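Posted in: Protein Modeling Q&A

I'm a second-year student putting together a small comparison for a lab meeting, and my supervisor asked me to include a predicted structure for UDP-N-acetylmuramoyl-tripeptide--D-alanyl-D-alanine ligase. I've never done this before, so apologies if this is the wrong subforum. The sequence is pasted below exactly as I got it from our records. If anyone can share the structure token output, I'd also love a short note on what stands out.
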Amino acid sequence: MSLWTSAAAVEATGGRATRAFSVDGVSIDTRTIKTGDLFVALKAARDGHDFVAQALDKGAGAALVTHIPEGVAEDAPLLIVPDVLEALEALGRAARARTQARVIAVTGSVGKTSTKEMLRVVLERQGKCHAAEASYNNHWGVPLTLARMPVETDYAVIEIGMNHPGEIAPLARMARADVAMITTVAAAHLEAFENIEGIAREKADIFQGLEPDGVAVINADLATTPILMSAARDVGARIVGFGETAGEYRLTGVRLADGATICEAEADGRALLYKISTAGRHFAMNGLGVLAAVEALGADRDIAAADLARWQPPAGRGTRERLVLDDATGAEIGLIDDAFNANPTSMAAALEVLDAAKPKGRGRRIAILGDMLELGPSEAEDHVALAKLQWMQGIDRVHCVGPLMRGLHEALEPAQQGEWMSRADQMVARVARLIHPGDIVLVKGSKGSKVSLVVDAIRKMGHPPGKDREDE
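Accepted answer (user: helix_wrangler)
Welcome! Here is the predicted structure, written out as tokens:
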């Protein structure tokens, strides 16, 4: 069964098809386009119309455009509309309307992508599950995810993000979720809001899209939880809370092992035991929220609890790796790649993971930390405050990257104080001298700090177990 026929796409968008077509997927990128996809010519850094001919040459089944681009034949399979983004949104709304899927929308300052992937892993074992790729959670990512949803989907997981006020509500209304989940509210993107309460109100707008009799799954441990609860009550949602100190789903025990998190919880008077196959208290909490959401969706919570162990964090979000430095001696280092994003909450969680890690031999716990961006007026204080975190005390050496991290560097105890570099490329040049066999190294920072360059440099120092250098 085709994802979209020209007739269905015309009905959804009000556009004009130059000829009949059917497509099996939707793409916005010619680099990853597949045969039979509908290419959507969005205008971003480049105008997608410049790539329509290339998309058709690579096998696209049709293209969504505002006009016939130069170099494209008039009888090419095109869907012509007044505005491409608005047409993509229309396709998303139509895809949502024609499916009987149970839909969950996920947002939060920290953990929404990891939680989305946890939900994908546990729900795909209980039905046909459709979920957003990567972090497709913005004004084009949400409609694109919806437009890609097959009619026969049983469960859909939609991630919704924001950078500025007013972004979540229209996306939530598009998703029309049966269940909406907020992982947490933290000081992320604070520069666009007056305070953290403003962030909470924006996150709570996800409930604006809930279907009648919808369920709001809310982190019950937050200072801003009352704001979230109030917003859910205002739309008539049934509320399910999860947390360590409050909520119907209560986390009663967390044990961080080296590379795993063992979790104990209670719900409805019943004990729950589940395992996350990576270390992190924040993953334990996200997993608990996932179980609450699974039950709210009508899926089997016990099966989901067992299947949580199948989830692994995506690259750059706490991925744990072993790298062999010398095949003859077996010397190796551990790498925790958490270089995709950072704020005070996620930084504390990552440092707790590093603190729980067990280096080999005389190895050390090393942190290489990049700037936390978009924190607003408190950014300088937030960086300095990291020095006093409970979990920082177990770190042997801390190297810092970026102008904001200069504050942390100066606040560290002399024994912990490593090197400070203003730019990631400078740290790249030094990193091989800063890491010894047996060390476990955490690299974390906001994407804009570019500490992912440091991750790449560390990977080049060795290779995964069982893989020869010649194979790389």
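A couple of things worth pointing out for your meeting: The chain has three domains: 4-83, 99-310, 319-471. The chain has a mean pLDDT of 94.
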